[in-house]
Amino acid sequence: MRRQVSVLLLTWLVIFSLAGCIGQKPKQPAPTGEGQAGANGRKLTIDDVKRAYGAEEKILSIHRINENYVLVESQRPTFANKFELFNLANGDRDTMPTWPEFVTLEKVESENHIVFLSSGKNSECVFGNFPYLIRCVRVKNDVKSTDDFTAIREDKYFKLDEQVSSGSKGYAQLSDIVVTLNGIQVLFKPISGHEADFYAAATDIPETKISYDRDKNRMIFHIAETQIGTCQSKRSRAVSYRRS
After folding, report:
1. Coil vs helix vs strand at 16
2. Would you say residue 139 has pLDDT above 80?
3. Distance between CA 24 and CA 28 in Å, rounded?
4. Residue 37: what pLDDT?
5. Nearest Cα to 205, choosing from 163, 233, 169, 177?
6. What gap in Å lies between CA 90 and CA 192, rounded to an integer?
7. Which of 3, 158, 164, 205 is the most buried (most CB within 10 A)?
8. Exposed, middle or buried, 146 (CB in 10 Å: 0-12/13-18/19+)?
9. What pTM was computed for the model?
10. In Å, how far are 9, 148, 198 from 5, measured between CA atoms?
């Protein structure tokens, strides 16, 4: 009798388990880089791409690369802008590894090699770097991944008549200008009594704009909000250098 009861209990457990499995809702897969094209077999449209972004993320520009690829620039409040590459044929979506830099599109070599120019500023700290290039190069083709690209950072060489800016900190005074074999070094130190402000977050030079006056054959360094030596004025200063 005890054996029959055990068999009956085991039978009910098996029936209950099967009923639970049949009635259970299938688990949804985790979000991947695969878009609608990968799900239903049709090509994505520009409208499909636009719908991939929520209301809190503003689309700034859309660049058509070729028949199958579009590069979308977007930005969320308080964040740096970002670029994402969409493959309209299979729905692949890849984020360009430029974060947290504010960047502009420099050149599209192909859908596997895209070049951006960093402004030198980012959304995470006040430090202002000198503008430089970020080469995003494809290292894999994985439809279920959004990080198929790697970033290669390199110096940007500007034309002589292009204006360039760098730096972000205030409370500085110009302490020395040194001409070296490689160029000109402009040295800064904190204004007395403002050392904490000068070194806070990141040590950086004051906002500096570099330009060239072709008519006068003169390169100009415009250094904002700084002092010279013991001068107490905080007005902007310009340092000029005439090529020999």
Report:
1. helix
2. yes
3. 12
4. 56
5. 169
6. 61
7. 205
8. middle
9. 0.68
10. 6, 59, 83
